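User: What would this chain look like folded?
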Amino acid sequence: MTERINIRELALETLLAIREDGRQSHFVVRDVLERYGWLTDQERAFYLRLTEGTLEYQIRLDYILNLFSKTKTDRMKPVIREILRMGVYQLAFMDSVPDSAAVNESVRLAGRKGFSGLKGFVNGVLRNISRHPERIVYPSMDEPVQCLSVRYSMPEFLVSGWIDAFGLETAEIICRGFLEQNEVTIRVRSREEDRLSSGKEDGSSAGLENGSSAGTENVLRELEQDGVQLERAPYVPDAWYIRNEGNPAELAAFEEGGFLMQDVSSQLAVRCAGIRPGDLVYDLCAAPGGKSLLAADLLEGCGKVISGDLTEAKADLIRENVERCRVKNIEIEVHDAAAALPERFGKADVVIADVPCSGYGVIGKKPDIKYRASREKEKELAALQRKILSNAVSYVRPGGILLFSTCTIAETENEDNVKWLLDSFPLESKDLTGDLPDALLADDRVRETAKRGYVQLLPGVHHCDGFFFAKLCRTV
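Assistant: Here's the prediction, encoded as structure tokens.
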């Protein structure tokens, strides 16, 4: 007989672990689902909706609570604050949950967690919210920063920065984009047996209308036979959306190295680096290894990728993916990219430096990022990035390419670092317009910056994560 579990209590414990222990939300949620693998599909779906939704809409939920509670959220006990946030989320966003259930279960949960003396407080606040929705009046666009902050649950300093950088209309599109359903994007690749059976080392096959190899066509057929609903993703070949619920890593094609989870933006950046068979590629901050694997596939079995990251745990993530995909020309190492390796100076044809960053571009997938963000952290990260980039430049041979990338939307970490690189080192920017698809070049901002060697992709505006990359050539 399986153990009974209160799903709301499980969601509460998850939210407290994220906020109090400082762990990243996607890791906490993953661990919980693994620990309680016997949950039904309905229980799993309810847990994910309540946990992720409460986290994602925290600022908006606190705004509502502060309209009705004399004790403001920043002065509440953490357990009670999370219970109330969960209760308001159910009232405001979960139509399948009756208001009475949202209120009563929240009150019971307060008692179960040892706060019987505050059950009346929880009951009163939530019942008032459920009975008087007309009292919830959001800020108007007369105050655009506060309005977008509350409406889309985004910290004001991020909203303000995006309005300054991109204008009010685009800033709202970015904020809205984070709250839309996130796509599960995969890169389909040829497995070793498919390449061998095709008679070509790279598995290429002329005449395929969509540009995929014979090997990737085999993987796509197998996925469809397994009931996977696929939709082609934009901008790059072999990128697909999976529309089914469930964990793609449980599919046989994944276990056999037929695909890996990788956003379109990351695939596009690596393809723009111009990697060719025979190249030596360094991937400096490589975990979990998606860019290294794409680089190795582009080498078509001729050349090598040296793929490293800071800790043994991160190297293990790369190793796991490389072994699953049975790729032989990737060398994995543990190394701090901020520490120079003089013996490698001037040897690499391509260096991939996807440096640590604030991660604003993936807030839609990791919403806790926005609550830990600050201008001070941006500046600290930019300084670390420059240490890594200084080494990255040294590894590039004359005529070779530095691909600098981040998954953020912060000028201090992106454009400012490109300017610093060009001012400080023998580098020149490479026009990217010939590397980008027409669908992106139709965007005036992308087209103009691509001529100067960099691209900022924006959630909601483009069909991918927020991502930045620059292509720079070492001149001497």
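Residues 200-212 have pLDDT under 50 and may be disordered. If you want, I can go into more detail on any region.
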